[in-house]
Amino acid sequence: MSDTKMVSLDAMDEQLIQKAKQEGVETMWDRKVTMKAPCGFGEKGVCCRICAMGPCRVSPVEGKGAQRGICGATADTIVARNFARMIAAGTAAHSDHAREIAHVMHLASKDGNYTIKDEKKLLRLAEEWEVKTEGKDIYDIAHEVAEIALNEFGKPFGTLRFLERAPEPRKKIWEKLKIKPRAIDREIATIMHSTHMGCTSDAESLIHMGMRTALADGWGGSMIGTEFSDILFGTPVPRETEANLGVLEEKQINILLHGHEPSLSEMIVMASQDPELVKLAHEVGAEGINLAGMCCTGNEVTMRHGVKIAGNFYQQELAVLTGVVEAVIVDVQCIFPSLTPITDCYHTKFITTSPKAKITGATHIEFNEEKALESAKGIVREAIENFKNRKQDKIFIPKTKAQATVGYSVEAVIKQLDRVVNSQIDPLGTVKPLADVIKAGVLRGAAGIVGCNNPKTQHDYGHIEVMKKLIANDVIVVTTGCAAQAAAKAGLTSKDAAKLAGKGLQAVCELVDIPPVLHMGSCVDISRIITLVSETAKFMGVDNCDLPVVGVAPEWMSEKAVAIGNYVMASGIDVFLGVLPPVTGSPEVVDLLTNRVEEMTGAKFFMDEDSLKLADMMLVRIEEKRKNLEKLG
Ligand code: XCC
Ligand code: SF4
Q1: pLDDT per residue over 25-56, tens digit each?
Q2: Are 313 and 385 in a shared domain?
Q3: Which of the residues 275, 376, 381, 565 has the least number of beta carbons within 10 Å of its own beta carbon?
Q4: Cα separation of 217 and 533, whole Å?
Q5: Mean pLDDT within 172-180
Q6: How does the average pLDDT of the chain come out, rounded?
Q7: Residue 459 in contact with ligand 1 by CB distance below 6 A
Q8: Strand 253-258 vs strand 289-294: parallel, antiparallel, or unpaired?
Q9: Cβ contacts of residue 163 below 8 Å, gap of 6+?
Q10: Does the beta carbon of 452 lie inside 6 Å of ligand 1?
């Protein structure tokens, strides 16, 4: 058995892992041990399964073992192809999520389950996309805007509309590199085609194509996902919540919301407030219905409703181990198939809802968007009726939880910044105060810390240590995804955490009334970060790559994270990875990503498994960028 001390920063995780052992329940930790060391070829990216002449695994070391696959593909080709396919898969996941949301907006109606919550944002987008709004019903506008968005996935001509939001110099770079994404689906298809057996073998060309596809995620799918979710469900504003498994309630019906798309979780939030269902909960002997979020759908509902955060990716099994979860309700992405055997050990119902993510052994209740609330009520009812089946001797809820402030959309950040604007001199509603403190050096820079958990690192260690180090050095942190949940659990998203910040950041936090680490939402909401950076660059008359800003994924694991890393880099922001991507078998690809892409995009990748070293590298890079920025005036 592994040394559980290494497992997590949080002692509570370890208590639950011990409980699992006592109860004979298998967790990811056991499987990690069984798995032993990862396959060396796979880890370096030099295994190719693209055609049936193989699989071929080539040697990353010159002169030792096969140097080429049967078709003649080299390690460079194989690594680059595999990497490009990871980008395509990640882009597909984010973008298919966005497509669902756009469909939901197309369904929205005044008297329906889905309505328009942020009309202003819809009108702004309509104007941006040149949709006539005068004298039109808001729902007709919504449907028209939704149709345009849906066409972004497959339009035969032109490039993506949201690219226009980028700073001018950035657009020129994309133009020159020929990486302006065309239709979103097209970019994914092109990668799948070009990486087919016997198509592109040139690594540089594959990395290029990968950037274009990734940009279709960041400035396409993800941005549509965020914008449309805000319009439909409301643009987040700061609100208080709590985070960690201690938010589960012994005397209530606990429903764990896990997955990604707010179209489901929003309806579950509504259903859980339905008077009839609340009454039913009381009838079965519970004091109420307690929703707790996990992974990105958890972020979506905490940002908009303050729904408590049960935990991040790593804690999905641990949540079930508490013995008090009546139902785990999931839709798509980041869901362990092991939730079936683990929920079988308790009374917990494991309910899948999406035809895109059916899981063996789970109860599948398909979520029907056309009858969304009714579907959601049915699901909540299942949870309530399961309360009586709890096994009293298996209950253990750890006490740990932390207070968190969440809800920092770009609009919310700008509103906070307005607090320091003298409206006699400067207009409200701009990023000027942010630009000013960065220029003056009060803030040295900003970091977007995002991404998953990965058993290659201690749970949350990378996230938390990097965040602490950066804020102590006057670098403000914005965060999304499972990194944001790590921050929330560690108390870093509370205003109180300003005491851990350097003098400059502390002063900013006080004046603007924000925490030093801002929770900006789910992973598709990295588009919020990209927007904020681009708006600041535009305001200062520079490009993104001129700003002292870094992107960081200390514990990433998913293909989505690979797509994100690449669009952040291609948007001109350096990316720091705490887990090595499977590219080390190709010196050519490593050189491209960590060196040569900088000449093309003004940014590159930095990789180091030591989080603290990684943080040092960020600080150095931030200071370098500051020097250059000064020269730009
Ligand atoms: Fe998944 Fe989005 Fe990663 Fe968390 S951060 S493990 S991708 S839930 Ni998105
Ligand atoms: Fe082997 Fe080439 Fe087929 Fe890949 S594409 S499996 S390297 S023969």
Answers
A1: 999 999 999 998 889 999 999 999 999 999 99
A2: yes
A3: 275
A4: 17
A5: 98
A6: 96
A7: no
A8: parallel
A9: 171, 174, 180, 181, 215, 219
A10: yes
Residues 38 and 186 in one domain: no
Kindly tell me if the per-residue pLDDT of 356 is higher than 90.
Answer: yes
Residue 599, pLDDT above cutoff 70: yes
- Count of domains in the chain? 4
358 residue type, one letter: K
pLDDT at position 43: 95
Q: Is the CB of 55 under 6 A from ligand 2?
A: yes
My answer on whether 195 and 257 are in the same domain is: no
Ligand 1 atom showing the smallest separation from residue 558 Cα: 7
Q: Are residues 38 and 162 in the same domain?
A: no
412 with 335, same domain? no
- CA of residue 197 to ligand 2 center, whole Å: 7
Domain edge (last residue) among 206, 233, 260: 233
Q: Can you give the CATH number for the domain in which 300 is found?
A: 3.40.50.2030
Structural domain harbouring 126: 75-233
Q: DSSP 3-state assignment of 416? A: helix
Q: How confident is the model at residue 10 (pLDDT cuts 50, 70, 90)?
A: confident
Angle value at C-alpha 587, between 582 and 590, nearest 5 degrees: 55
* Cβ count near 109 (within 10 Å): 12
Give the mean model confidence (pLDDT) for residues 551-579: 98
ipTM value of the model? 0.95
**Number of the ligand 1 atom closest to the C-alpha atom of 295:** 8
Pocket test for ligand 1, best of 560, 564, 567, 577 (most atoms within 8 A of CB): 560
Quick one: which atom of ligand 2 is closest to the CA of 78?
7
Domain assignment of residue 70, yes or no: no
* Of 293, 364, 396, nearest in space to 20 by CA: 396
Which atom of ligand 2 lies closest to the CA of 51? 3
Considering only CA atoms, which residue is closest to atom 6 of ligand 1?
452
Candidate of 49, 50, 82, 195 to mutate for ligand 2, largest count of ligand atoms within 8 Å of Cβ:
50
Q: Is the pLDDT of residue 1 over 60?
A: no
301 and 438 both lie in a single domain = no
Give the model confidence (pLDDT) of 50-105 as tens digits: 999 999 999 977 778 899 999 999 999 999 999 999 999 999 999 999 999 999 99
Which amino acid belongs to residue 63? G
Tokens, residue 300 = 């979506």
Q: Ligand 1 centre and the CA of 629: distance in Å?
A: 33
Q: Are residues 562 and 496 in the same domain?
A: yes
Query: Which of these three, 338, 359, 394, is where a domain ends?
Result: 394
Give CA–CA dist 117/111, Å, rounded: 13
Nearest CA to ligand 2 atom 7: 69
Q: Which of 222, 295, 480 to mutate to test the pocket of ligand 1 (most atoms within 8 A of CB)?
A: 295
Distance between Cα 295 and ligand 1 center (Å): 6
Structural element, H or E, at residue 532: helix 526-540
State if residue 70 touches ligand 2 by the CB under 6 angstroms criterion.
yes
pLDDT in tens, 124-174: 999 999 999 999 999 999 999 999 999 999 999 999 999 999 999 999 999
User: Would you place residue 181 in the very low, low, confident or very high pLDDT band (cuts 50, 70, 90)?
Assistant: very high
What is the reported pLDDT for 413?
Answer: 98
Asked, for residue 273, whether it belongs to a domain, the answer is yes
Q: Is the pLDDT assigned to residue 238 strictly greater than 80?
A: yes
Residues 6+ apart with CB under 8 A from 38: none
Nearest CA to ligand 1 atom 1: 334
Residue 86 in any domain: the answer is yes
Q: Is 69 in the pocket of ligand 2 (CB under 6 A)?
A: yes
One domain for residues 8 and 99: no
Q: Are 500 and 471 in contact (CB under 8 A)?
A: yes
